[in-house]
């Protein structure tokens, strides 16, 4: 009996995924979700399906999301003009109110999508359980309002949710010591949370395909970087401007115990599954150590 080659291919794909499923079973993976993938409903559903699949095959995912484009839209609706300093949103009291409302709205829409797929999700902000404690952020000594830099992460609430089999979805808002509300850069929040829970993986869904040796040359995408190579890239300024803070965050997370960081293009459907479960991967994986290769030879 001749087997349909498509059916056989499906079996091969599942078998290729097996060592990755074994390797990461019961391990925590933090997914930072933002950028254009959040603006498109189909892409949003693809990302949520990926994370649900990770959960159902035994990972312990935590989603940390942004919502910058939505915040800007609502700030304009309120008759104000969004302002940025060094890529950070200038956040006065009124903007902070809007940001919190918008982020909570995004948060619960993600919870809704996960629940619809049959997985229990709980949406929280960094305020809940004192998860994210911040200091006021002063870039180059400038006061940009209620923008926080993370001082401490108290991950107890996340551990409690994971233990009870919930999928936590976190929006990046925290308290300072006076319990004032601060907006936090979502990349920073994802990194700080990944470090605090000693995540096995931290995946950034971004608007670029990964890290390039030469940003102008799309064939120079790097599949794998060691911690040392990533540090050299930063010190030599070899990557595009927007990637340097992301890479610096990745390096920081790896030094604090995260095993692997992935930079992926969230606009590619199912980029998370392709990167985590296939031998080739599609983005850039940054590894903690020289010795441990990421990809299985298949």
Task: Write up this protein.
The chain has 298 residues and is an alpha/beta fold. α3 crosses α4, α6 runs parallel beside α8 and α7 runs antiparallel to α8. The protein starts with a helix and ends in an 11-residue tail after the last strand. Helix content is 40%, strand content 23%. β1, α2 and β2 form a beta-alpha-beta unit. It has nine helices and 16 strands. The longest helix has 24 residues.
What kind of oligomer do you see? single chain
User: How big is the Rg?
Assistant: 19 Å
Strand content: 15-25%
Number of helix segments?
9
Find the structural class using helix and strand composition.
Answer: alpha/beta
Query: Main sheet, how many strands, which sense, barrel?
Result: 8 strands, mixed
Average pLDDT metric: 87
Q: What string, H for helix and E for strand, traces the elements in order? A: HEHEHEEHEEEHEEEHEEEEHHEHE
**Percent helix among the residues?**
25-40%
Poorly predicted segments:
294-298
Q: State the shape.
A: globular
| Major sheet: arrangement of strands | 5-8-2-1-11-15-16-14
| Separation of the first and last Cα atoms | 27 Å
DSSP, total strands? 16
Features:
9 helices; 298 residues; eight-stranded mixed sheet; 40% helix; disordered C terminus; single chain; globular; four-stranded mixed sheet; alpha/beta
